[in-house]
Specification:
The longest helix has about 50 residues. By secondary structure, the chain is an alpha+beta fold. It has 10 helices and 9 strands.
């Protein structure tokens, strides 16, 4: 079991989805944990019979502690469920105010005293960009948000979480207003846990986003200008994966049995799963219950941080990097039609 920032991942939970070579890789990543377990046996063998008996008695005490801890987890789950129900009316009131469903006391009077000729429909409703600002003020989540994402996230109306019983875990639900980017009204992310109390992550699943043509934020089209002297003198466009908060809904997956992972790939996968869970748990435990404090900035700890989105592009050397231009997707598709006779596929979940 690996541990990162207090979050545990049961690497053996990936075992059944990997072939023998890949399993060896994941065992290799957990080697330190296994050595610690083996070290316990070595220590016992080195002890004198008297001391060994004392350690056996300590193990009994530890077992009794673990039984009490199991009851604690059970009671904590019941208590959490109780208060989660009590929170719901407060979350509902927050939703109504944020989205302009209701007006707070005193606001109507102030509005009436303003210029009567002002178009009421033009007045701001609710709290604009509430969830976008709240998430950007949290460093863990802000790192996932690019400048290209921000306009789409202004349509975010609410975020909720709920427990999932079978298999154990929790689900995040992101509710969006009708927007020009995708058809979905609700985007979900579900974390399936082997043991929710530790927690031990088994896998994560997300909603497939139905992007409108030319609006996919997880891919971009690049126009490549050929180098001087190249046989192909026409500009080329290509689709490229890019950083986006909306990649959150297409989480890393454990490879199928027939796929082979080398050590570097396995390490990268583990890190991606840890990072993905870190974002999800931050939204569940910090953003949702304390959204107002994140919106106002009162919850920020550690000062300001940059939100730079550095997009880089690597190619095969046939085109000049300095001449890369990110195109509007519709315009790029038109050029592709002219040059290739067909359009590239729309953004799809891989």
């Amino acid at each position: 079991m690996a541990n990162n920032g207090g979050i545990s991942f049961n690497l053996s939970g990936l075992r059944d989805a990997l072939d023998e070579e890949a399993r060896t890789v994941f065992y290799g990543l957990a080697l330190q944990d296994k050595l610690q377990m083996l070290a316990g046996d070595d220590i016992m063998e080195s002890l004198s019979p008297v001391v060994r008996q004392r350690v056996d008695d300590l193990r009994v005490i530890q077992s009794q502690h673990d039984e009490l801890e199991a009851k604690f987890f059970e009671e904590r789950a019941a208590l959490e469920a109780k208060y989660q129900k009590l929170y719901q009316p407060l979350y509902a009131k927050r939703y109504d105010i944020v989205n302009g469903v209701v007006e707070v006391e005193g606001t109507k009077t102030e509005t009436a005293s303003e210029d009567q000729g002002e178009d009421k429909d033009a007045q701001e409703k609710g709290v604009p960009d509430f969830w976008l600002i709240a998430m950007k003020n949290n460093e863990v989540v802000a790192d996932e948000i690019t400048e290209r994402d921000e306009e789409a996230l202004t349509y975010l109306k609410d975020i909720k979480w709920s427990k999932v019983e079978e298999p154990k875990g929790f689900k995040l639900e992101f509710y969006f207003d009708t927007n020009p980017y995708f058809k979905n009204i609700v985007l979900t992310k579900t974390y399936h846990m082997v043991d929710e109390n530790e927690p031990i992550l088994e896998k994560a699943t997300g909603t497939e986003i139905e992007w409108y043509p030319g609006k996919c934020l997880t891919q971009k089209l690049l126009k490549k200008r050929p180098k001087k002297g190249s046989k192909n003198g026409k500009p080329m466009t290509k689709t490229e994966e890019c950083e986006s908060f909306f990649n959150f809904f297409d989480p890393p997956e454990v490879p199928k049995d027939h796929e082979i992972l080398d050590k570097d790939t396995a390490e990268e996968l583990k890190n991606q799963m840890e990072q993905d869970y870190d974002v999800g748990s931050t939204i569940r435990y910090k953003i949702i219950p304390h959204a107002v404090s994140w919106f106002t900035g009162e919850a920020i700890q550690g000062g300001d941080f940059d939100l730079d989105d550095d997009d880089t592009d690597e190619d095969d050397g046939l085109y000049d990097d300095d001449d890369d231009e990110e195109e509007d997707e519709e315009g790029s598709k038109a050029q592709w039609d002219e040059q290739q006779g067909e359009r590239p596929q729309e953004c799809k979940k891989q």
